[in-house]
Each structure stands twice: as structure tokens, then as C-alpha cells.
Amino acid sequence: MQRYFIITFLLLLFFSCKIDDKDDCNEFTLRGNLDTEEKITLTIEELTTSDLIVLDSITTDNYGNFNIKKEIDEAGFYILRISRDNFITLLVEPGEKIHLTGKADYLPTSYQVKGSEGSALLADLNQRLHTNMAKVDSLADLYRESVYEPNFEQIKHELNIDYTKIFEEHKNYVKQFIENNPKSLASLIALYQYFGNKSVLQENENFEYFESLSESLANVYPTNKHVVDLKKRVSEIKRQRMQRKMADEKLAIGNKAPEIVLPDPEGNAISLSSFRGKVVLIDFWASWHNPCYEVTKKLAEIYNKYKNQGFEIYGVSLDRSSEKWQKAIEENNINWTQVSDLRYFNSPVANLYNIQKIPYAILIDQEGKIVAKDVDYRKLNKYLEELL
Q: Which residues have a Cβ under 8 Å from the Cβ of 174 and sit 6 or more positions away?
């Protein structure tokens, strides 16, 4: 009996959060000292899966000391902000006692953090980002200084090569960071990190990182809202990929093109099958996408050359505005068939034809069978000479 009592007592000591002190277990403490000559106001914000929520604000003393205490239910991301562009991201676990130091004039490049493994990882990730972005800023300075140089095009080309090297180096660092920390929520920040205005990792190109991180984090944080959100995102990507695969099978060369029936600018329903007996180019475009206009000019020449020989263009616009769509038709003298449901990429036809980009075209023969996909407009003449 005495032995049982001792074991029970030791267990209570080990699990220091008793029922009466449960709130203390969920509380984290953030203490720090910032190098500043005056009092400054700090704001603490929670970074949720969709928003930033302001939780509190405090003012340091005259020596830059501060102390923040908050109760949290689960591990999460918190922004410590001095101003709009002067802030850091912390990864906080319930019960952590964190100590922070840094320079108040620009915290992101000067801070150090102790007492939080996740926050320390984010500090390393943040420091590497700022280092590489500083290199890019130097390239931008060289670009501006060289604009009026006689060999500017050559300099521009070399600067672009240098930028690509910096970006790829950072991308490899982010991949390695995730591989080294598969069970840390810090890898979520790495996964979604931007390099300037560009995502470091793309869902389509680097999906294996999204999928593997989702699986590894789910084993550690099965109910964490950030992990659950990533899991939903991965599931949606898989669903979309399956849909695209099924669409690609339907759109295989030699198969009949799926039927399209959409209204023209006057509201008349025009079907794709109504052009059976002609070679038809299904041209997906939009008035808001400038590269489409260059293609339109080339198509006009080809259409005028072959329209009397059994060639037709069935233009499917992914516009939202009828006014802008019709204005583009008039200004560009488009005299071939135009249809649209004005539903952008949400159009059922865009999903039916698995349209991921524009301009995009599919060529079908007189029987409505698919001859070519993602047609290179420079090779369209060759296709038409063989089919007509």
C-alpha cells in the first residue's frame, strides 16, 4: 500500500499540471528585452488558418522590457508586431516560457529567441529569407544603375540568371528545412513561404512536400487547426488531380470532343456539334488576359486564309463581364464564332476540358474527333494543310 502511494505521488509530481492548476498548463509566457531608447507598443496577434486576430497590446518600460502571458488551447502561430512591416512570427506551444531579445528599430533581422524550439526554427527560417532577399535587393540596385548602359540587355540577362540562382538556392533550403523538421509546425510556415511576391513551393510542382508534411504532422497534431487545414488542402488537390486525369482520358487524341453549348454575344445558344463537317479550333481565351490578344492577331490571319476551305474557330471566352468581352471582340475585329457563360474558370466547360491556362486550344477534325491539344499556333497552318 505504501509503495502504491509513493508511485502515485511521484506521478503527480511528474505531471505537474494538476486539475486545479489546469489553466497554468495552457498558459505561455513571453518575456523579453528590446534595444530601444523609448517606450514602444507591442501587439500580439494570432495567425489563424484564414485571418489575423489581435489578442492584446502592451507597452514596454523605459528599458525595453516586456512580459506577455496568454492562455492557449493548442500549439499555434503568433505575430509579435511593432509596426506594419516590423514584426516576427512565433510558434508557441502551451506552457512554454519564451525569452526574446532584439533591436526595436527592425526586429526581424535582429531577434533571438529561447525557450521555444518551434520559434527558434522560425527564427532560422526567417533569417535565411532576409539574407537572400537582401541579395535580391542588391541585384535590383544594379538593375536600376544599369538601365542607361549600352550593354543593358546583357546586364539584364546576367542579373536574371543571378536572381534564379538565389531563388533556387532558397528553394532548396526550404525543402531541406521541411525534410529535417517533418514533425514541427514550423515547417508549415516554410511550406507556405513567399520569396518576394512568389511562392517558394508550388502545389503542382512540389506536391510531395505538401502531402508528406500533412501525413507527418497529423501523427503529432491530429486535431490542430493548421494541420487539419493542410490535410483538407491536400485532399482537395488529390481530388482535382483525379478530375484532371479523368478529363485527360476523355480528351485523348482520337476521342470525340465533348459537346459544348453556350450563348454567343446576342444570347443565341451555339453548339460545337453544329460545325460538324468542318475542322474546328476550340480556342479558350479571355479579354482580361493580354497574351490572348497576340494569339488573336495570328488566328485572324489563319482564319481569313482557311475559312472558305472548311475551317472554323469556336472561341470560348472565360470572361466575367459581358461588356468587356464584347468590347474585346469589336476592338480586335474578331469575326469567328464566340461563346461564353461568363463564369471565368468556374465555367463547367472549363472543367470539362480541363483548362488550367489560357490561351489554350484544341483542334478537332470534320468528325469532331480530337486531333491536337494545347495547339501551338505557329504549327496550326501545318495541321490545316493536312486536314483540309
A: 125, 190, 191, 193, 200, 201
